[in-house]
Amino acid sequence: MKIVYFYEEGKEKDYFSERLSGNEIVFLKGTTQDNVAYKDDQAEMLVVFVNSPVGIDEMNRFPNLKSIVTRSTGYDHIDLEEAKKRNIKVSNVPTYGENTVAEFSFALLLSLTRKIYPAYNRIVEQGSFSQEGLRGSDLAGKTMGIVGVGNIGKHSIRMANGFGMKVIAFDIKRDEDFAKELNFEYADFDDLLSESDIISLHVPLNPHTRHLINKENISKIKKGAILINTSRGEVVETDAVVEALEKGILSGAGLDVLEEESLMNDEVSLLTQEHPNPDTLKTVLENQYLIDHPQVIITPHNAFNTQEAIERIFSVTVENIKAFEKNDPINLVTV
């Protein structure tokens, strides 16, 4: 089988070459967009990461494509409708990072509540060990609102319990036995917004979750709450976060993802387009506002990135590829 593999790190080539011997593998550094000129009418499988969109244009470049394997849990970068039309199977890595991402969510939260970054920055930039303005707040006794009780959400609830927090959660599917086991309660979404001291988002991106936090519902958020987002940038309307910070509705935000984050390294190209999209321009400018805001911590979509999680991703990806070779595909995602 001929495989086209879009890779991030050189070590991936050795890992997958060794474990998939017998296949013809073309390794391309970067994303599908970085390699837009590459076409292959023999390739049967693409192996991609979340930063590689696979839509109609990409599928047209690989007319013999039979499988797309993504090294991620999320698959919003793949046009599932188009894949279905072409009878292309799509596999993901469903459970590699449930504890990993949950841990990172709390790292963002603690950085905000205990003012870790400004304390560090003061020492580095000023050489000052003054504690002035660095008084934080406890997590114990606070109400944690978990949006999305999937694998990551469940780990987040366990961690919140460990901090002595009260937990409420929203999910379209309620597992009352799990709620009883971990001593939390489900709530309607609006109630979660109004009651939570911290709102942590753990949902996939789809038409139902796009702009789940938006300008229409930010007024319902408890004044002074903190927003944590390690899911997808588009789950939160950037306009809404900016407004909530300006009005004091949110006291802080920890964001591992942003809307239009792929453009943040290419502002010049965006600005010099003949007809730039005004909404996109506005979002990029608002992202810069968030980056500069003293009560916001931005990280570069890094919540997944631990050695252990990467090893799990690679292992399951190999299993997905071998299963497809045997005509028994696993971890399939569908429309």
Strand content: 15-25%
Mean pLDDT rating = 94
* Helix and strand pattern: EHEEHEHEHHEHEHEHEEHEHHEH
Please indicate the count of domains.
Answer: 2
Instruction: Estimate the global geometry from the Cα principal axes.
Output: globular
What name does CATH use for the topology of the largest domain? Answer: Rossmann fold
**Sheet of most strands:** 7 strands, parallel
Spatial ordering of strands, largest sheet:
8-7-6-9-10-11-12
Verbal overview:
The protein is of the alpha/beta class. The chain has two domains: 2-96 and 307-325, Rossmann fold (3-Layer(aba) Sandwich), CATH 3.40.50.720; 98-298, NAD(P)-binding Rossmann-like Domain (Rossmann fold, 3-Layer(aba) Sandwich). It contains twelve helices and twelve strands. Strands 8-7-6-9-10-11-12 form a seven-stranded parallel sheet, with helices on both faces. α6 (151-162) links the parallel β6 (143-147) and β7. It is globular, with a radius of gyration of 21 Å.
Give me some keywords for this one.
single chain; 335 residues; alpha/beta; Rossmann fold; 2 domains; 7-stranded parallel beta sheet; 12 helices; 12 strands; 16% strand; globular
